[in-house]
Amino acid sequence: MPSPESPAVELAPIRDMLRLYCHALTERSVELQDLKQLVEKNIGWSKDDVATSDGAAIFLPSVVERFDLPSDNYDFLKVMLTQQAGHIEFGSFEFRFDRAAAKFDDFRSRVTEPPDYHDHDHGHEGHHEHSSVTELTRFFRLFPNKRLASDIFSIVESCRVEARIMHEYRGIAAAYREMRRRTLKLRPAMSLLPAREALLEFIVRQSLGQGRGMKIPPKHRKVAGEIHAMVGLIAEPDATVED
Questions:
Q1: Number of neighbours of residue 165 by Cβ within 10 angstroms
Q2: Given this model, what pLDDT does residue 87 score?
Q3: What CA–CA distances, in Å, run from 215 to 18, 147, 193, 198?
Q4: What pLDDT is recorded for position 38?
Q5: 200 or 120: whose pLDDT is higher?
Q6: Least confident of 38-47, 166-175, 201-210, 234-243
Q7: Considering just the CA atoms, what is the radius of gyration of the chain in Å?
Q8: DSSP alpha helices (H): ranges in 59-169?
Q9: How far apart are CA 233 and CA 102, in angstroms?
Q10: Helix (H, G, I), strand (E, B), or coil: what is residue 58?
Q11: How far is Cα 38 from Cα 52, in angstroms, rounded to an integer?
Q12: d(CA 154, CA 48)
């Protein structure tokens, strides 16, 4: 337990208040649980997230002590919660393989699914009851590198959701911008990363609101430009999870 002088913010004393806040955002009852409970679950989002959701519950750290002021730690917790509530409200868990995208031409139907695909064949994810896991698993199986596909999807979908939050909930926007600014300061320098990781970092930085100052090697600038345009479309309010 943090000392009285500590800037740390604990989840337990404010869980009920945050649950009401989340209910107001999503118009549904969503359980808030300790992130430590999420040991064996694999729900499609990056394991490196500081908060996550499985579509029915939101998992948050029991203590936040990232900053020197309690108000900053509370804002960080609220931003994390809002982001995960946004995944629920704005349809991240309602992905359907056969539903058309809004912003892009669909290629899913043109790619042959692996011949060994069966509805019951979902490995570690198969125990989860939410149908979107099945649909996402079917989608990720189209890619030779499923982990890379999942990571890209996670980053870009978070970008879509955060853009919707910033558009629809202006009251949280200032806290969001401040947390983005602080997060950008902690990101690794792109010049020190291998090409693939550098392009992933490019997407992350764009999703955090950085629009300039990113050094891209000349041979990757065309790809980076295409990525920038696509992520820009994803951030438009009518973009869907299928995009």
A1: 22
A2: 93
A3: 40, 26, 11, 10
A4: 64
A5: 200
A6: 38-47
A7: 19
A8: 70-89, 131-140, 146-168
A9: 10
A10: strand
A11: 9
A12: 11
Q: Which residues contact 46 (CB under 8 A, 6 or more apart)?
A: 150, 151, 154, 155
How far apart CA 182 and CA 220 sit, in angstroms, is 27
Q: What is the pLDDT of residue 25?
A: 85
Asked if 73 and 66 count as a contact pair (C-beta separation under 8 A), the reply is yes
Give the SS3 label for residue 154: helix
- Residue 177 tokens read as 């911008």
Cβ contact 178:166 at 8 Å: no
The pLDDT score that the predictor gives to residue 210 is 87
Residue at token pair 């913010």: 9
110 DSSP assignment:
G
Q: What is the pLDDT of residue 45?
A: 41
End-to-end CA distance of the chain: 43
With CA atoms as reference, report the closest residue to 217 among 203, 242, 198, 189.
198
Residue in this structure with the two tokens 């806040």, named with its chain if needed: 21
Which is more confidently placed, 37 or 94?
94
Entry pTM: 0.82
Helix (H) or strand (E) holding 63: strand 63-64
Residues 9, 211: Cα–Cα separation, whole Å? 32
pLDDT at 127 over 60: no
- With helix as H, strand as E and coil as C, how does 105-134 read? CCCHHHCCCCCCCCCCCCHHHHHCCCHHHH
- In this prediction, what percent of the chain has a pLDDT beyond 90? 42
